[in-house]
Amino acid sequence: MPLFLPHFNLQKHNTLAVPAVADWFVSITNDTELREALAWAGERSLPLLVLGGGSNLVLRDDFHGLVIHIRSQGKILAAENEQYVWLQVAAGENWHQLVEYTLAEGLFGLENLSLIPGSVGAAPIQNIGAYGVELCDVFAELSAMEIASGLSVTFTAESCHFGYRDSIFKNALNGKYIITQVTLKLSREPRLVLDYPALREELKAIPMDQLTPEKVSEAVIAIRRSKLPDPANMPNAGSFFKNPIVDGPEYQRLIAAYPDLVAYPQADGHFKLAAAWLIDRAGWRGRQLAGAAVHEYQALVLTNPQRLPGSAVLALAGHIVQSVEEQFGVTLEMEPRIYP
Ligand SMILES: Cc1cc2nc3c(=O)[nH]c(=O)nc-3n(C[C@H](O)[C@H](O)[C@H](O)COP(=O)(O)OP(=O)(O)OC[C@H]3O[C@@H](n4cnc5c(N)ncnc54)[C@H](O)[C@@H]3O)c2cc1C
What we know:
Elements: E1 5-9, E2 21-28, H1 31-43, E3 48-51, E4 57-59, E5 63-70, E6 75-80, E7 84-90, H2 95-104, E8 129-130, E9 133-134, E10 139-146, E11 152-156, H3 157-160, E12 177-187, H4 197-202, H5 213-227, E13 236-239, E14 245-246, H6 248-257, E15 263-265, E16 271-273, H7 275-281, E17 288-289, E18 292-294, E19 301-303, H8 310-328, E20 337-339
Parallel strand pairs: 2-5, 3-5, 4-20
Antiparallel strand pairs: 1-2, 6-7, 7-12, 8-9, 10-11, 10-12, 13-19, 14-16, 15-16, 17-18, 18-19
The protein binds flavin-adenine dinucleotide (FAD).
Flavin-adenine dinucleotide (FAD) binds at residues 15, 50-57, 70, 91, 116-119, 121-123, 125-126, 128-130, 178-179, 228, 231, 236-238, 337.
């Protein structure tokens, strides 16, 4: 039976360093412990919060329930052929360490996703993405435990309904499954994705024939370190808002009013607006409100320098949403999950 800890401060378990307290906290390292934890919470009718690295959630308040911290470890070569390797990874593995491991093993596909904080098990929840690659590009399948029954189920890419920072686990199956393993389909041959302008710029000094996945990973790490605050020094949850997607007429209306609007055309005729540009233009970059702040260089990142309760960060986020809505008629959606 895993150890259930009462009155547990979650400050070290969320990258916003919010000092919320959980009534109960348990770390699990395998499926048996997870099943026991679910049964234990079920007997006491406790609400659950599944926690990986805590890098994509806001703890609005104390949590009156059981926090299940996923710490399972392990990587298994599930299948291989001449071109690909299917690597099955336990949900509690650290994402960036996995990226480093795959590069060292000569398995490619994760390099653009270097240095994203958090756990492997959380990666499918919002279909993590960066620098032109998303998890769904390398995803094969996942195993998840149904909370209600304790049964393990396999989800294919199709059944995960992946979208931009989205999956079925944020929608129809929200709070119903705990991901226990993720299988990735990795290439033995480098297939560099260099669509992202900032990445090409960072790599421009290297001749094309000398580019390797390792060099792409190094470039991604360098860009991220220069642009994003390290949560260890400045508490934050990465991008706080999704880039809003608008249709053609809406884009035409906006670009006519704001010729320097930053937007990216999508394959389906829609446009993805740079939320950072909207927030910056609404005058929020570098501002503080009751202790929570908008990062000085990256308007998409809200910081919590005073390690205040999550409600302070959410109050700032609410003001930003309102003012962007008023100025541009565009609704920003928060990226991190909010609890309770
Ligand atoms: C500095 C910084 C930079 C970031 N950059 C990026 C980026 O470039 N791209 C990007 O996509 N994201 C980015 N993020 C967000 C974050 O890193 C990812 O969303 C990551 O996948 C979250 O992992 P986690 O383990 O910390 O999840 P947590 O914050 O612990 O959990 C997030 C959500 O997933 C659920 N969850 C966690 N594990 C499981 C599981 N095993 N089963 C079921 N549900 C689970 C939680 O209940 C919660 O709802 C960034 C965050 C920070 C702080």
